[in-house]
Every structure is written in C-alpha cells, then in structure tokens.
Specification:
Blueprint lengths: L27 E4 L4 H18 L4 E4 L11 E6 L9 E6 L2 E6 L2 H16 L8 E4 L5 E5 L19 E2 L2 E2 L3 H12 L4 E3 L18 H13 L3 E6 L3 H4 L11 H17 L5 E4 L16 H12 L5 E5 L19 H6 L10 E6 L14 H4 L4 E7 L15 H8 L12 H6 L9 E5 L15 H12 L5 H13 L3 H21 L37 E2 L18 H6 L9 H4 L2 E2 L10 H24 L7 H33 L11
Parallel strand pairs: 1-2, 1-3, 3-5, 7-10, 7-16, 10-11, 11-12, 12-13, 13-14, 14-15, 15-16
Antiparallel strand pairs: 4-5, 4-6, 8-9, 17-18
C-alpha cells in the first residue's frame, strides 16, 4: 500500500510522482499578464508541482507571447484568436507547454486539465488538445440553511453557514479549488426554500461577507448566485404585497438590486422557487410565472444578472382518489403555454424528470416543448432517492441517458444536450445544474465513492461527449493514482451501482416506494395515500399509473414520435413501463418473463450485485489507504443489509398482492 496521504482534497490530493519524464516543464511558469484568474492558474500549477515533484516553480511575468528562443516551461497567456467561452488550447511544441485561451477562465481550466494528465502520468510530448465547454452555465445548487443544516444533506453540516452567519475560511477556498478544477462556473450557496435569515442575504446585513465570498469565487472563475424569497418585499421591505405587477413591488426590487450589485458587482443572479411546496409566488396574485420572473429579471438586467426560475411547481394537496390530476403534468401544464414570454435574462430550471429525482423516470416533456425559452437541466447528485450517500450509486450513466434523449423538437440537434447548450436554438442557450452532495465531512461527500458524482457532474457539464466510463476512470486515477487494479475494480463498482440500486428498489419506473419525509428505506405504500400525489396503484391484478390518453394524458405532452412511443404498453420502453401504464402481473415482457417474475428476479439480482461490489472492494484492500477502505467497507456492508430489506419488503408486498409464486422457489415472506 502507498504511503499515507491526506485525502481531504479529494481528487486534488496530489501524490508523489518520482520518475515522471515530463517534470522539467514545471520548473518555470511564464505568465503573460497580471490578471487574478491567470495568477490563480499559475498558483495551482505551482502547488501541483511542489506536491508531485518536490519542485518549486519560478513564476515569471512576460510582456507578450513567448518569443521563438524562449526557454522550456509552461506559458500562460490570453489570445483574442484562442478558444472562447471558457475554452482553452493546451499544446507542447519546441520543449514548451503552452495554454492559451480568449478568456482567463479558459487558462485556469487548461491548467487543471494539464494537472489531471500529470496525475494520470500521461505523456506531455507533442500534446495538442483544444476544448470548449458545451454548456454556458455549469452550476451547483446548495440546499444549505443558515443555521448550518442542509436540506437533503448527507455529508455533515454546511460549510457556508453556521448560526445564521456566513462562514469564510480555508475550506471556502478549498471548495472553490475543487469546483473550478472540474469546470463549474456558478454556485448557488443557499437553499431554494428561502426563509428567516436567508431572506436577508440581499440586505446590508450580509453585504461584506458576500463581497469576500464573491472575491474568492471570482479568482477561480466562479460566479456567486443566491436563492431568493419571492415574498421579500413583504418580509424584508414591510410592504403588504409581493404582486409582481404592483408598482411599489417593482420599485422595491429595483432599489434592492441596486444595493446588492453595489456590493457584489459581478453577482451572477438569483435562483427562485415559487408557487411550490408552500413557497410564495405569482399565483397568489393571479399572475403567471412569466410575470413573476420578468419583474425580477428587469430589476437585475442593468447589472448583467440573470433570474433562474425553477419549474418544480405542482399541487401538493392531491386526493389519492383523484385519478386524473397528475403531478407529472404540473411543470408542463404550468410552463409550456408561456414559451417565448420570458425576458432574455430568465432561464427556466427544469428537473430531469417530471417527478422528483427518482432512480428511473422519463425525461421531462418540457424539454422539446419549450423552443423560445432558455433552459437549465437540473439533476441531483445528493442521492436523495438513490441511497443518500450511504449506498454507492454512480449517477453519471443516468445523466448521459438524459442528455442523449431525443426530444424530436427539430430534425437534427434535438437532444436535451442540444437544447440546454444552445445548439438546437442558439439564442436560447442555458446550461446544467446539480443539487450538490457536499458538506463538512472531511472527505466532503460522506461516502468516499460519492465524490465520483461530484467530479463526474462537473466533467460531464463541461464536456457532454465524455462517456460515464471515461469519467469514472479519470476520477479514480486522479483520486487513487494510475493503479490498474484499483481503477478496474472501482470503475466496475461504479458502473454497476446505478443499475443495481434500481434492481433492488423500484421496478420499471414506478418510484416513490420510500418512507415519507426522509425518503430513505422501503415503504411501498408510504406515499400511496399521501397528499403529495404520487402513486403506484397496485392491486390484486397489477400495478402502474395509466398516463396514456385513457389515463392522465401525460404521454401526450411529448412531441411525436415520443408521444406515440409512450402511449401504448407494446411500444413503451420497458424500463418506464409502470410509469406510463397500469400493467397486469401476468403481462409478459420482451424477455418472456411475467411482470411479477421480473419484480422477484431483479430484487434478488440487486442484492447479488451488491455482494459482487463488496468482493471487488475487498480485492483491493492492500492497495487502498486503510481509513478510506474501512469507511467504504462499512457503507457497503450497510448497503448490502439495506438491499436485502428492500428485496424482502418489495417481493413480499407484491407476492401478497398477487398470490403468484416465485417460479424459482426462493424465500419470499
């Protein structure tokens, strides 16, 4: 096993590389200009060289591009003809390494790309690599509360807030380093459910702290964003209304934004959750979401700010007896009629599916329906419904499927990735965001392997063409070093983890079989008769929610040919069969199995998959630092016991509903 290391900086925990042949480049770093982000880039290269090579590079300022006879080293400079929009060109020529870009942020991303290559001990000779990020906005949404708690947080307390105060310390800078290293360029620091002191973040009370935080972020090419309380004019300003069409409300927001941007001129903007789960919004005043969002957008427009408006809007008081009202339809019904009505600095943030980050659900039909509105795809790496970072569940394969989904909105360039990047509709580029999975735990993500989701999201947001396997391998080698046995075992664990979790939890897209409130652990009927409006509709004959034209009609909210595909049981993709249709237990799937036998088999298989993960992990014990090995082992053992509980509860429930025996005669209670 390798020497003891401090892994508190995750994939930036650099290890010694004694015999790396290309280390001579790192003895001198030439910087063209005195710009903060480029200076940060040079410092990161220096930090990596000191840790990996015991080198202390000399940082030299040059007045222009390196001349023909300049000495060996790394050259960093902007070039108006270089890659723009955060892109960079990294190449080796004549004994020199050069990173050039149109913008300073591109230089920084290029430096981290170079460091990743060194961590993986890849050769640098004759290197010639250009990369431009696919998405303009690449964000993290933190659901941190100002008392230090985190809503759906599974990695300790907040490192942004404690006791109603903003925390700014060494961990703040460490966080900025980590997110910048994977290409994240925007961070929302507070919970979308804005309440109490969080409403005051836009007041003078926190102006100085936000100014300091924004400066740390700025040096790493990151824009600071805040979640906003739509009712702030009442709660903070003393008005008796928050009506977006009221003159006094518009005036209040204009004055408040002038004050905010005076303190933080480059504040990225604001994230807003309105009219959902008890949050205030324009519906209170019989106004549309476009009216609400546009009012705020006009207030921040003079400062270059944007309003990111969440589409997570639904009626959370549905009666379980009502078979027509469908939570899945809510975002589509609320926002599709408003396409083209939003200001150009409004971006709609759309969850990947129509429900709520389930282990399997269809891509939201809003993608494709909206063709004149900027959109951000929202995913969740916090694993709220996928094991809460106690189970390993590598989500990048899921995100790849979502990004590659064809919406049929155009003949070409019709994928979700095309829409959010602006390739489908160039004037309506948006981006991608993830609900963060970090906290105050030493390893940042509680489960050490959950860091692969954090790293993987950033890398995928920057370059959607990367495969989930490539990203897993890159994360593993940056974290543990280029040890083939470790890489093979860990990547196999990661790549089998999402399918395994799906197998032993919710079958064929049904979802929601969890304990209410904490969303952890099996409870088949936990939400079946609950006011939140999510159902599996299981009875003695079958299960599933009928969302075809004979049911709620949600299938018909998709564009053709997707609407026709989802409309019938025969054409519907089987992994989503129970999301879209009520299906008898005796229905035979394409592999010849009955639905009930599929439920039995997959739940047994899921447990077996976890056992295989444990065997793979145990096989590399001597190659993994002991503290990391033990932490992961403990969580894998918990996952195994929990998977068995899921298997037994789900199989027993449906056996007792259907009275159909398992064909293989296994123990079902």
């Amino acid at each position: 096993m390798e020497e003891q290391m401090d892994y508190s900086m995750a994939w930036l925990s650099y290890r010694k590389i004694p015999w790396y042949p290309d280390r001579e480049y790192f003895r001198k770093i030439y910087v063209q200009e005195n710009e903060a982000v480029i200076h940060t880039a040079a410092k990161e290269l220096s930090r990596a060289a000191e840790a990996m090579f015991d080198e202390s590079p000399q940082i030299i300022t040059i007045l222009k591009e390196a001349p023909e006879n300049s000495s060996a080293g790394i050259y960093l400079y902007t070039d108006k003809n270089g890659p723009g929009n955060g892109g960079y060109h990294l190449y080796e020529e004549g004994g020199r390494l050069t990173i050039t870009a149109e913008e300073p942020s591109g230089i920084l991303y290029g430096c981290f790309a170079l460091i990743r290559k060194v961590q993986r001990q890849q050769p640098l000779k004759n290197l010639d690599y250009k990369e431009v990020p696919d998405n303009p906005l690449r964000m993290l949404n933190h659901w941190d509360n100002m008392d230090g708690s985190i809503e759906r947080g599974y990695s300790g307390d907040s490192f942004f807030f404690k006791n109603q105060e903003l925390l700014i310390n060494e961990r703040t800078a460490d966080y900025a380093r980590l997110v910048s290293s994977i290409g994240i360029n925007g961070v929302v620091i507070n919970n979308v459910n804005v309440k109490e002191n969080a409403t005051k973040l836009i007041s003078e009370d926190y102006a100085e702290d936000l100014k300091q935080l924004a400066m740390i972020f700025r040096n790493y090419g990151i824009s600071l964003y805040l979640s906003l309380n739509f009712a702030a004019p009442m709660e903070l300003g003393g008005l008796d209304t928050a009506d977006p069409e009221a003159a006094e409300v518009r005036d209040w927001w204009e004055k408040q934004m002038k004050q905010v941007y005076a303190s933080v001129p480059d504040l990225g903007g604001f994230l807003v959750k309105a009219d959902s789960e008890g949050r205030p919004g324009p519906f209170t005043y019989q106004r549309t979401h476009a009216q609400g969002a546009n009012m705020l957008a006009k207030a921040v427009k003079p400062y270059g700010g944007v309003i990111i408006w969440r589409c997570f809007v639904y009626n959370c008081t549905q009666d379980w007896r009502d078979r027509k009202t469908d939570r899945a339809r809510s975002a589509y019904d609320s926002f599709s009629p408003l396409d083209g009505q939003f200001e150009d600095n409004v971006i709609l943030q759309i969850k990947n599916g129509p429900m709520d980050f389930q282990v399997r659900e269809p891509v939201s039909s809003l993608f494709g329906a909206l063709q004149r509105t900027r959109q951000i795809l929202e995913v969740q790496i916090a694993q709220e419904y996928t094991g809460q970072q106690r189970h390993v569940c590598y989500l990048i394969p899921e995100f790849k499927e979502i990004l590659e989904f064809h919406t049929c909105c155009t003949k070409e360039r019709d994928t979700v990735a095309d829409i959010i990047s602006g390739r489908a509709f160039p004037q309506f580029a948006g981006g991608i965001t993830a609900v963060a999975n970090t906290g105050s735990d030493t390893n940042w993500t509680g489960h050490d392997l959950a860091a692969a989701n954090w790293f993987g999201f950033g890398r995928l947001a920057f370059s959607t063409s990367l495969s989930a396997g490539e990203i897993a391998e890159e994360w593993c080698e940056c974290t543990f070093g280029p040890d083939k046995e470790i890489t093979e075992a860990v990547c196999r664990i990661l790549m089998m983890s999402w399918p395994a979790y799906e197998k032993y939890t919710s079958p064929l897209g049904i979802g929601w079989m969890v304990n209410p409130h904490n969303h952890y652990g099996p409870n088949v009927d936990g939400y079946e008769y609950d006011r939140w409006g999510t159902y599996h509709r299981a009875d003695h004959y079958g299960l599933g929610v009928e969302r075809g034209s004979k049911g709620t009609g949600y299938a018909q909210t998709y564009l053709e040919a997707n609407a026709s595909m989802y409309e019938t049981i025969e054409d519907c993709p089987e992994e989503l069969l129970l999301f879209f249709h009520y299906v008898p237990y005796t229905y035979r799937l394409k592999n010849g199995k009955t639905l009930i036998q599929h439920i039995y088999d997959t739940h047994f298989e899921g447990v077996e998959d976890v056992q295989k993960m444990i065997a793979l992990w145990n096989g590399i014990r001597e190659r993994i630092p002991e503290d990391i090995f033990m932490r992961v082992s403990e969580r894998l053992e918990h996952q195994l016991e929990h998977a068995k509980e899921w298997r037994d509860q789900i199989n027993t429930y449906f056996y007792r509903k259907s009275f159909i025996e398992d064909e293989k005669g296994r123990k079902i209670y």
